[in-house]
Design goal:
Shape: elongated
Order of helices and strands: HHEEEHHHHHH
Number of strands: 3
Strand order of the largest sheet: 1-3-2
Structural class: mainly alpha
Helix content: over 70%
Distance between the termini: 20 Å
Largest sheet: 3 strands, mixed
Length: 231
């Protein structure tokens, strides 16, 4: 019973609380600036198209996708995918999110190294996230230290992906703010609003890394407890 009811669940709870707090903050800030119409009157799609063309990028398509805050850039199809709350919206928040995704397109176009590294480790990260817990749990249950270690290392691969994601996301936001300002698409006041939206979004990635670090700590504690019992 100790394997399933242990004090390390406190780390899981802490990670969940951090994630919920950051997510709530993100939704609050996005909701606030989603109601503020941009002075330019541009929609998220229009802002994205202008940014891409100003950067000399003409082979990236801007598409409308369903959902809320599901916006992303897909390097495989070279598409900037904007959600319902962004694509046709003229809000400050929408322009900021659209510009951020275009920041990823610019990264791809300029061979930004952290983006290339992140793309390269996707297969390993996906494998790690899917297999780490089954291997770790089987290793604990059947007293197989090698499986326990394998599970931990697989989790580290998934964590590495999240860590590499941080500079990619922060750089995309930096590029977004610069492109919006240089393109005259936002006023000085709106620039501050966009910055708050992008900063709140970036913090969700930071929270994810913190959560994974806490999970790694939990795995190490459990494996350490196992070794002490084995001794």
């Amino acid at each position: 019973m100790g394997l399933f009811y242990d004090s390390t669940y406190l780390l899981v709870i802490l990670a969940a609380l951090i994630s919920m707090a950051v997510s709530a903050r993100m939704n609050t800030i996005f909701g606030k600036y989603q109601t503020v119409r941009s002075y330019s009157g541009m929609t998220g799609r229009e802002a994205a198209m202008r940014i891409l063309h100003q950067a000399g990028i003409y082979d990236v398509t801007v598409r409308h996708i369903s959902g809320k805050l599901t916006d992303h850039y897909d390097p495989r199809t070279k598409t900037v995918n904007l959600s319902d709350a962004v694509y046709d919206s003229t809000s400050v928040a929408a322009i900021g999110v659209a510009a951020h995704e275009c920041g990823h397109a610019v990264q791809h176009n300029t061979d930004y190294v952290p983006l290339k590294v992140r793309s390269a480790i996707v297969p390993a990260a996906n494998l790690g996230s899917q297999l780490f817990w089954p291997l770790f749990l089987i290793g604990l249950i059947f007293s197989l230290p090698m499986l326990v270690k394998a599970g931990i290392w697989l989790f580290v691969l998934a964590l590495a992906f999240q860590v590499v994601t941080l500079p990619v996301e922060f750089d995309a936001s930096r590029r977004a703010l610069k492109m919006l300002s240089e393109g005259g698409m936002v006023t000085e006041t709106e620039h501050d609003g966009v910055k708050k939206v992008l900063w709140a979004a970036a913090m969700t990635y930071v929270a994810a890394v913190i959560g994974s670090l806490l999970q790694l700590l939990r795995l190490l504690i459990l494996s350490g407890a196992f070794r002490r019992n084995d001794d």
